[in-house]
Amino acid sequence: MAKLQVAIDLLIIEDAIALATKVAPYIDIIELGTPLIKSEGLAGIRKMKDAFPDKLVLADFKTADAGELEANMAFGAGADYITVLGATGDSTIAGAVKAAKEHGKGVVVDTIGVKDRVKRAQEAIALGAEFVELHAGLDEQAEEGYSVQVLIDEAARAGVPVSIAGGVNQGSIDAVRNSGAIIAVAGAAIYGAEDPAEAAKELRGLAIA
Q1: What would the pLDDT profile of 44-59 be if each residue is shown by its tens digit?
Q2: Which of 24, 154, 165, 203 is the residue whose CA sits 20 to 30 A from 115?
């Protein structure tokens, strides 16, 4: 069984909340994507958490420095999770973890751009991250020959709590769940669907099968 996270890469918080309203019955974690964070700022996080107080809200900061400071900003605005880049230094991750412990929240280390995602995932968990996102970004997904299977294989090898983000859809989520990943992150498979609620419902059923 894997939890389901929706990654919302829209740019206007009202549009993001409207989408979240449709899919909320089937979602465990609502992610405000980095473009949305940059567009709407901390106020967007607060609006989303106020709209869905019973859902976990992830702020995809992709923090690269000042980990404790940025984590405090995100948690103060209502986020339950903040992402920190795995490519950054251990001290940045540790600083964010320190803030998370003070707030009773969690740090997610995002491995986008990391060459050895399995090794960095293990290191990040040792530093206190709640889970690690094995993540192929939109640009990597657009490269010739990309397959989400690489992340699925890495999840099976990692031996630590991970989520998978990068092409999760109805066709791959069964393999994502079987890899041992605790969270499946779906973006375009939900917000790009003709009926986002139906897509989320279908993914939910497959995630918990």
Answers
A1: 999 999 999 999 999 9
A2: 203
**What is the CB neighbour count within 10 angstroms for residue 109?**
30
- Can you spell out the DSSP letters for 16-81? HHHHHHHHGGG-SEEEE-HHHHHHHHHHHHHHHHHH-TTSEEEEEEEE-S-HHHHHHHHHHTT-SE
pLDDT reported for residue 1: 87
5: which strand partners?
Answer: 29, 185
Question: How many whole angstroms separate alpha carbon 82 and alpha carbon 33?
Answer: 11
CA distance 88 to 107: 14
- Tell me, what's the pLDDT at 188? 95
User: In angstroms, rounded to a whole number, what is the distance separating the alpha carbons of residues 77 and 59?
Assistant: 10
Which phi-psi region, left, alpha or beta, contains residue 171 (left: φ > 0; alpha: ψ -120 to 50)? alpha
What are the tokens at 127? 């530093």
Cβ atoms of residues 112 and 135 within 8 Å:
yes
* Number of separate helices (H) and strands (E) present in the chain: 10, 8
Could you count the other beta carbons within 10 Å of the beta carbon of residue 138? 12
Are 159 and 149 contacting, i.e. CB atoms less than 8 angstroms apart? no
Q: Which two tokens stand for residue 20?
A: 């979240």
Name the packing angle between helices 34-51 and 67-76 (round to 10°).
40
CA distances from 145 to 134, 142, 149 (A): 18, 9, 11
